[in-house]
Amino acid sequence: MSEETSIAEKICLTPVGFVRSTITHPELKADAENISLAEGNQGARDRVKKLATHVSEVVIDERFDGILDGIEEFSHVLVLYWPHLIPQESRSLLKVHPMGRKDLPLKGIFSTCSPARPNPVLVSAVRLLSRDGNVLKVQALEAVDGSPVIDIKPYMTHYLRPEGVKMADWMDRMLEEVGAGQGDG
Amino acid sequence: MSEETSIAEKICLTPVGFVRSTITHPELKADAENISLAEGNQGARDRVKKLATHVSEVVIDERFDGILDGIEEFSHVLVLYWPHLIPQESRSLLKVHPMGRKDLPLKGIFSTCSPARPNPVLVSAVRLLSRDGNVLKVQALEAVDGSPVIDIKPYMTHYLRPEGVKMADWMDRMLEEVGAGQGDG
Q: Across the A/B interface, how many CB contacts are shorter than 8 Å?
């Protein structure tokens, strides 16, 4: 396969459902030049704390009847979703100050978890509290209300839990400051 | 946001790069009705073993100059990619025997890691061995040669490493049988 073929082709997805949540706006604001925290650093701290026990629903479209069967045997699922409130023009950003913090050096978008990225497919491993037909009740999902859902997978240790993980120092510090460090989770 | 709006809209992605690998065909074959293991169960075992030390490259398109800056400070990255050799018609499957094994009961696609799914965005957490400009060298990535890459993220413990994970018994057994159980990884 030539490089050109794989780069040129477009990939089209059809959402399989949506998120129902009391979270109505994203934590990060984004435009064509920057990202910034909607509520500042203290706001982020409060938000992380609240999020830990936040319950939301993932509603799968009824045309996929049966596609969730067996998911209730897993304690955690991986939710892939689309941050639909992030403006299209912010998807061409290449570098940002992480979390919009000017005190941190510019980093490439792929070394951050900014939702403003070329293909903003967001991935979160969350606890599955219960399943009722085509509706999953999950804990600590950051997606805002109405976010299109792209995929649901069981949380598989083999693919998602490597040994010896070391994050960048600036990321460790930033997570600790908002109460999302390894010791806080 | 109404249910209909979020379900109806299409989401289009443009690959940001591709995978360069000596793996040339997917482990699972898929058609409109079934999935099956290309090389049987023993083949899968051999493959899992080889994969653990397999090195491949993720090549990011040069128009994204700088987007990887800082990624080398992380030990692991999350690679989102598209299994381009899985035929379109297999994306409408709703239930399968996991890994094509008829001895296991039918399960909904969302409770399996089958690449034949409505939106086959595959997610893998892999060790980052090195970065050379727009090329990442990674370990244990199962993607076949030429797979379009959708996104690269740093491996963030906060989003990806929940406590108290319990998988379905059939999944635990299946992973153990191919040497990919928690004790084997």
A: 283
